[in-house]
Every structure is written in structure tokens, then in C-alpha cells.
Amino acid sequence: MSVASDLTHWHQCVANLLECESNSQRIYELLRGAEALVHGNSSMAILYPVDSAPEITHHRLLANEQLSTQVDRYVEGAYLFDPFYRAAVDEKWEGFYLLREVAPDAFSQTEYFRRYYREANLGDEACYLVRGEDGIIASLSIGRASDLGGGKFSAQEIAFLKSILPLVQNVLRQWIRNYSSAGRQPESFGKRLENALEHFGSSLLTNRECEVLHMTMRGHSIKSMAEKLDASVDTIKTHRKHIYSKLDVTSQSELFYLFISALRHHTGTDPDPLTSLEK
Hints:
The chain has helices spanning 3-19, 23-38, 67-76, 83-90, 99-102, 111-118, 155-163, 165-181, 189-199, 207-218, 222-228, 233-247, 252-265, 274-278; strands at residues 42-48, 55-60, 95-98, 122-131, 137-145. The mean pLDDT is 88. The protein has 2 domains: 3-181, 2-Layer Sandwich (Beta-Lactamase), CATH 3.30.450.80; 200-269, Arc Repressor Mutant, subunit A. The chain is globular and about 60 Å long. It is α+β, with helices and mostly antiparallel strands. Helix 10 (207-218) crosses helix 12 and helix 11 packs across helix 12 (233-247). It has a 5-stranded antiparallel beta sheet with strand order 2-1-5-4-3, sandwiched between helices.
């Protein structure tokens, strides 16, 4: 498809946006237009209310992406390991980002990457992040399958996506304002999950081992952890060996599913969700 044809589709998207009467319609048209602009074929629009579960309001999945994994399991807790979400929450980033700009250096070795990218055949992903005054985060992501030119967005496609940032931000900010003005009551779900992640393993591990555990699950390499924690590589290796032994796991994959399993049984009575599995 030619550049002229791509732009024609995008201009039609803008024309449709001007006619939209609801946030849902605007988000739909925006996703469809952005996809057409860069030949994307997997997209999502997500709201992250403060202290509440994420709301995936729009999604288009690849043929081999499963709704139970990409949507249901994500909302139930896997989103805590989403690099885009972590960048918005931990680093307060806003704007346009590619996956490779926000992911830790060993992210491709995580169970999250395996389930949400490799097994889903997702080759690249770009995401717009906007934060409202009350802390609500809105994201709009565009992905592409690995079998389309290797999946990676070209320099020209990235330039296209960056150029529409002001429009995307405007639509997402309006979405956040309308959501906030609707008087939705925040729930404790999101805060409970964040607290569960923060205290995961704390009943069995030392404070430094917990730090290494969390960074391991998010996709940091041993070298990266050593630099960020001002420790030697050998020290980090020793911590990770002790973590695996104490939690009775042998891989990052087992760590990921141990956390998800603990979440499902966690009542919030004890800070560490692992205690729920021991009872």
C-alpha cells in the first residue's frame, strides 16, 4: 500500500472523528485509523483508574491471540508486568513509546513476553500514554504480527505515529475527563494487586531478595539489577538462587504463575499473597 493511500485512510479517520458523538466511537475510529496508517493488526484501548481494575474498552486481537489471556488474565493481574503500564505508573511517562523503549533489558526472557508477544506472534507494539489530573491513565496501543515484514514498524511508520500524537492525546484526555465526570467510584482492586506485588514473597524472603524478585519478574537482567541495586553480579546471582530455593521454583515462568496463583487465593488478610497458598 502506498504512502498516499495510507494518508487517505488516515484523513478519512479524522473526518469520521469529527462526526463521532461518543467516546466509544472516537476511540474506535482512532484505533482503526492508526492501524491503517501503519498496517497494524492488533490494538487495544485501556483505562487504568486509580485503585481500580483496568478497563479494556476496545480490542482487536490477532487470530492466535486468546481473549482469556490477552483480556481476562491481563485484567486479573498480569497487567502489573506490562512495561507500558509500569512506565506510566513508576516513571510517570506520557507520550508515544515503542516497546523497546520501555521494556527492561531482559524482558524477552520473561513469562509475560512469552505469553503476550512470542506466543501471540506479536512482532512490535507502539503505545500512547496519557495521564489525567486525578491519576487515571489512558493507553492506546497498536501492534503488528511478526509475519508482516518481521513485525517491526519502519522509521517512516514510527514518524507517522509520532506525528498524530497531539490528536491522540486530545481524544484520550477527553476520554479520561468524561470517565471522571461520570462519578465512577474507585474500588480497592487495583491497589490490592499493587500491594500484593509489592509484598509478594516478603513472608519468606529478605528485603533485598524481594527487590531482586520483583526486578526479575519485570524483566531486568542480572547485570541491570546489579547496576540499579549497586551490587555485584555474583551477589545478585546468589540472591536469585536463594529466592528460587525459598519459593521452590526453578524458572521465571514458575515465578510468574506462582504469583498469579497466589493472587487468585489472596484475601488481603496478610500482606504477602503467598500466605494464602500456605493455608
